[in-house]
Amino acid sequence: MISSRNLGPARPHRIPLLPLEKRFLIDVHRRFMLGQQAQHGPQHQVDYSLMDWAEVTREFNNNFENRLLPGEIFRRPMRTESALRSARPRIPEIVALTGITARKVKGKKGGKKGGTKRGKKEDGEDEAGKRKGPKK
After folding, report:
1. Total structural domains within the chain
2. How crowded is the C-beta side of 86, counted as CA atoms within 13 Å?
3. What pTM did the predictor assign?
4. Which among 85, 128, 135, 136 is least buried, having the fewest CB atoms inside 10 angstroms?
């Protein structure tokens, strides 16, 4: 069996956003909110799904991609649209501003994969998963 110990991980680990990059995303959300309120009035409920993420991603990568930021030893990677969108729930200022929270992953219950019946009680079963008697 070939393991990731021998070959390395299947994909490279995620490089976290720096505070400067997080500040950029916060500012983008704030500008969008102010633009929506200027257009529709201050009481307007802002719909963040209308943000132009292709433009946000282009602007983000123009500012940060392949740059060596102060205090860093590696150049910053290119970010995709989905990477920037999925980073939003991990930035408390954006969560406070927008109310955006992480989506629940369907079908993911945690625990071990390929669980057994052991410990689960069904009608007519004891702790070990053995039948007590005929099912009525």
Report:
1. 1
2. 9
3. 0.68
4. 136
The DSSP output letter for 84 is H
Residue ranges making up the domain that contains 92? 17-37+51-98
In a domain, 33, yes or no: yes
Quick: pLDDT tens for 26-56: 999 999 999 999 999 888 888 988 999 999 9
In this structure, is residue 133 part of a structural domain?
Answer: no
Does 125 reside within a domain? no
Any domain includes 83: yes
For residues 24 and 63, the answer to whether their CB atoms sit within 8 Å is yes
**pLDDT tens readout for residues 62-89:** 999 999 988 888 899 999 999 999 999 9
From residue 66, give the alpha-carbon distance in Å to each of 9, 60, 73. Answer: 23, 11, 12
